[in-house]
Every structure is written in C-alpha cells, then in structure tokens.
Amino acid sequence: MKKNDNYSKLTPLAALDKLKHYCAYQERCHADVSNKLFGYGINSLEQGPIIAYLIEENYLNEERYATQFAGGHYRLKKWGRIKIVQALKQKQISEYLIKRALKEIDEDDYLETLHKLAEAKWPGIKAPSILHRRQKCKMYLMQKGYEPHLINEVIKQLE
Q1: Which stretches make up the RecX third three-helical domain (predicted)?
Q2: Cα separation of 157 and 155, whole Å?
Q3: Distance (Å, rounded) from C-alpha 49 to C-alpha 12?
Q4: What is d(CA 49, CA 72) in angstroms, rounded to the nearest whole number?
Q5: pTM for the whole thing?
Q6: Please, are residues 91 and 62 in contact by the beta-carbon 8 Å criterion?
Q7: 3, 50, 66, 139 - which has most CB atoms within 10 Å?
Q8: How many other CB atoms sit within 10 Å of the CB of residue 139?
Q9: CA distance 19 to 39
Q10: What is the pLDDT of residues 73-114, one digit of tens each?
Q11: What is the mean pLDDT of residues 47-66?
C-alpha cells in the first residue's frame, strides 16, 4: 500500500483537523495548504471553505507568512532580496505582500551582511587573475540573491 493511499481517504473534516496542526506548527501560505489538501484527496471545490475557515481562525495569514519567510531566509540562509522575491513568487504571494515583507529587512544590516559574505568568500577564491577573482565572487553573491550594483560596490572595497 502506498503512503498516499491514506491521504485519499480523508474527509474534509479530518483534513481540516490535520491542517490546523500543520498551520499551527509553522507559518504556511495558501499554496502550501492547497497542495497539502490535494495530497489528502480534497478537490478544488471542497478546498475553498477549508481555506476560508483557516483564514478566519487566523491559522493562515499570507502577510505573516511572507514577513517570516523573508526575514528567516535573510537571517538564516543569508539570502538577498532577489532570491527572496523569486521564492515568494513561486509560493504565489502577491507583489504587495512581497514588498511589505522586504521592508522589514533593515537596509544597513542588509549591506553589512553582503559585505561579510564577500569578505568571507574573497580570500578563498583561487583564480589566475583579479578579473577572474572578481567574477567568481560576483557570481557567488548573485547566486545568494544580492543586487549586482551592490555587489560591484562591495567588490571594489575588497580590492
């Protein structure tokens, strides 16, 4: 028997009970909850009232989710704004909520984090020329989701 066979037998009421725990444990977005409901075998028509209930009872709040996601990924994973925005868009969070979430990140702290990441990476880069070294550092910081114009300023300071 497959693991998903159990989910397909859940009633909407049983799914709601599981989702209360799922949402109480950690902030979730509507897309996460909807995917979970599909996994439980709940169709789109039955999902609406369940999601509405979770919102009314404050189990589900996309603004709170976006703010915690942005802050957490910035602080813990040292992600830049670009990568955070892309991840939130994948979760189908609105532009408005993404902008509000990004405002919670302190600008001075953001620049300091970028500088620390660059300083930590710079000595470990082995490259035949300064141009290659700059490029490798820039690619690393862009992969982390930082803005190119900020990266260029930081790299100039390191040289």
Answers
A1: 108-155
A2: 5
A3: 9
A4: 30
A5: 0.86
A6: no
A7: 66
A8: 11
A9: 12
A10: 999 999 999 999 999 999 999 999 999 999 999 999 999 999
A11: 93
- The DSSP annotation for 55-108 comes to HHTTS--HHHHHHHHHHHHHHHH---HHHHHHHHHHTT--HHHHHHHHHTS-HH
**What is the spatial distance between Cα 102 and Cα 86, in angstroms, rounded to a whole number?**
12
Residue 8's pLDDT band, with cuts at 50, 70 and 90, is: low
Residue 128 and residue 142: Cα distance in Å, rounded? 21
Quick: pLDDT tens for 105-142. Answer: 999 999 999 999 999 999 998 988 889 999 999 999 99
Comparing CA positions, the residue from 139, 140, 135 lying closest to residue 159 is 135
Domain range annotation of the chain: 4-56, 62-103, 107-158
How many whole angstroms separate alpha carbon 15 and alpha carbon 13? 5
What is the signed CA dihedral for 63, 68, 74, 75, rounded to 10 degrees? 150
Dist. CA 53–CA 9, nearest whole Å: 21
Tokens of 68: 């915690």
